[in-house]
Each structure stands twice: as C-alpha cells, then as structure tokens.
Amino acid sequence: MPLVALTGGIASGKSTIARRLADHGAVVVDADQLVREVQTPGSPVLAAIAAAFGDGMLRADGSLDRAALGGRVFGDDDAIARLNAIVHPAVREESARRFAAAFAADPAAVVVYDVPLLVEARVEDPWELIVVAHAPAEVRLRRLVELRGLSPADAEARLASQVPDEARLRIADVVVDTSGTHDDTNRQVDELWAGLDEHLARRAART
C-alpha cells in the first residue's frame, strides 16, 4: 500500500505522468482538485478567505473568484502565507481522508498524490516515494506561452514565484524528464511502474 508523492513545477508535465500512472491502475488524488473542493460556496474555507481578503473575492453566486484571489495574493508573500494558512490544513485533512478511503477499498492500492506544492508544504509527510516531473525552465516557459496563452512576462513571473527546480530535484527519489515527447514521458512512467517495488525498497533503505 505505497503512498507516492508526485510533484513538479508549473508546466512540467506532471499531469501527463499522473494520467499514465492512473492508466496503470494507480489511485490518483489531485491536490488542485481538493483545493477547489474545500473552497466551494458555503464552506468554512471560503468564508475564511472572504474574511481575510474581502468579499470582492466572491462572485455574485457566492463562488470563489479565482482570478480576483490570484491577483490579490500573487507576488505578496504575506498574503500567500495567510491564504496557505487557511487552505492547507483543510486540504491536508481531506487528502488524508482520500488516502485512507483508497487503502480501505484496496489495501494493495498504489496511491499517488499529485501535489504541486510538495516542497513548500508537505515534504515531511510520510511518503514512500517522491517522483518529480522535470523539464528545463526554457521548455516550461515555451509551454506556458504556446499552450496556455500566457505572455512571456507572465510566464516568467509564474516560474519565478515557485521554488527553484533544485529544491524539487533534491528531494526526488525518481525524476521523470518531460522535456521530450509524450511517448518518451510515458515510456519513463512505464519503467517507473514496472520497477516500483525496487524504487520503494531503495528509498526505504535510505530512510
């Protein structure tokens, strides 16, 4: 019943890896999806966000205005810390519930937590393997501009706001190089899956 953390910087190909692992039978828990779920209208988290940052963070229907919130906190370390203090505990609680449910349903399950902010928030959790999606910054910049429609300046700002690649690579048990084709990334994920027991044993021997 391994619990695997999957992380990577923005536009690093992490979602491609997660989909391939799911194809192999892994139970993938998406941290970004959990964030959206704990911020639904009427939730304590959303109420706390409005109290901390103003009712302007809410749409007319009571849902979170993600663009407004992003604009409010982006580049403001204090605001980001306040937001994280509201959101992270709720996400941690919900993710633990999802992990437990997955293992209760299948004690032999491989549960993968797709979590962008692993280094920032959850690196000390009891992961049995940490997988890092990695591509050079220039590749990710190009993806942000060409595939997501960001301006070069906005793309650079997004990358600069995240922890350095070296911080993620330092904690990696397995690095998947996503700078090539999708087929190349999938091949590496297939190899990871085939050798999962070996990777788990190596990490266990180090810790």
From TrEMBL:
The entry's keywords: ATP-binding, Coenzyme A biosynthesis, Cytoplasm, Kinase, Nucleotide-binding, Transferase
Catalytic EC class: transferase
Top-rank taxon: Bacteria
Catalytic reaction equation(s): 3'-dephospho-CoA + ATP = ADP + CoA + H(+)
EC number: 2.7.1.24
Alphabetized GO MF terms: dephospho-CoA kinase activity
Binding of ATP, residues: A11, S12, G13, K14, S15, T16
Keyword Transport attributed: no
Pfam families linked: CoaE
Primary location group: cytoplasm
Compartments in which it is found: Cytoplasm
Cited Gene3D superfamilies: P-loop containing nucleotide triphosphate hydrolases
UniProt pathway: Cofactor biosynthesis; coenzyme A biosynthesis; CoA from (R)-pantothenate: step 5/5
Keyword hit for Nucleotide-binding: yes
NCBIfam families: dephospho-CoA kinase, PRK03333.1
Summary of the function given for this chain in its UniProt record: Catalyzes the phosphorylation of the 3'-hydroxyl group of dephosphocoenzyme A to form coenzyme A.
Family: Belongs to the CoaE family.
Protein name, as recorded: Dephospho-CoA kinase
Origin organism lineage: Bacteria, Bacillati, Actinomycetota, Actinomycetes, Micrococcales
